[in-house]
Design a protein that fits this description.
It is built from ten helices and seven strands. It is α/β, with parallel strands linked by helices and about 240 residues long. It folds into two domains: about 140 residues, Rossmann fold; about 90 residues, N-(1-d-carboxylethyl)-l-norvaline Dehydrogenase, domain 2. Helix 6 packs across helix 9. The longest helix is centred in the middle third of the chain and has 31 residues.
Length: about 240
């Protein structure tokens, strides 16, 4: 298929190069370039640029109405549905769970694919596109897909902040919190992620902004506010 990647940053490049390995033709389009015709448009821009890209696709002289538009950005729940209604256009949501330093490797070795389907037809095509990766493919609504992404990152942020607090307690007793984490996470109910990845504030492009998005959705959250405060304390301290 002819796949256009709009926003060739970390996620866009990983997505494009990953699909290229399976024989697809990839066209990268930067922020200011003209949007050309394609079978599938993957939007991999920051969230605040997604609507502008959708509008540009719809107004492009190459647009005929059959193309598949897929947003990979971490949009708030309801955003995709709102854009579909506003621009009278079909849009799917396909969140990414890639770490910046190993994005291409993780795209090629993903453990699941989430497709927030705008319709059965486009969902079927995207499912076929991802089948060669031989991982579970979960089809759901765009709004659920958006919530899956934000919830995943909020949970990871929470785990890191929890273990950063445990780290502070361990220091009082001269204990190694990473050794503790390695032992505690032998319990199958306790994930190794935060147990082994702590000792400094979480950063990067995704966790802080997605946590903020969750707090915008639910301002009364005591837990997520505490997660942010723990992390801010480590940054300021």
């Amino acid at each position: 298929m002819f796949i256009q990647i709009i926003g060739p940053g970390v996620v866009g490049k990983a997505t494009g190069e990953g699909f290229k390995r399976y024989g697809h033709i990839i066209d990268y389009v930067d922020k200011g370039e003209e949007i050309r015709g394609a079978d599938i448009h993957f939007i991999c821009t920051p969230e605040n640029e997604v609507e502008d890209v959708v509008a540009r696709i719809k107004s492009s002289k190459w647009f005929v109405g059959e193309e598949i538009i897929v947003v990979r950005s971490s949009t708030k729940p309801g955003t995709i549905n709102s854009l579909m209604w506003k621009y009278d256009i079909h849009i799917c949501h396909n969140p990414e769970f890639l770490r910046e330093s190993v994005a291409e490797f993780e795209f090629l070795n993903m453990d699941r694919v989430i497709i927030g389907c705008c319709c059965k037809k486009h969902g079927d095509i995207l499912e076929e596109l991802y089948k060669p990766f031989q991982v579970p493919i979960i089809r759901t609504t765009p709004t659920m897909s958006e919530m899956i992404k934000l919830t995943t990152n909020a949970y990871l942020s929470t785990t890191i902040s929890f273990w950063n607090e445990i780290n502070q307690i361990c220091k009082k007793f001269g204990l190694n919190s990473h050794e503790l984490g390695s032992i505690v996470s032998l319990d199958p109910r306790i994930p190794a992620y935060g147990a082994k990845m702590h000792g400094k504030p979480f950063g990067g492009k995704c966790l802080p902004k997605d946590l903020d998005q969750m707090l915008e959705l639910y301002e009364d959250s005591i837990l997520l506010k505490a997660v942010k405060e723990v992390n801010r304390g480590l940054i300021d301290g």
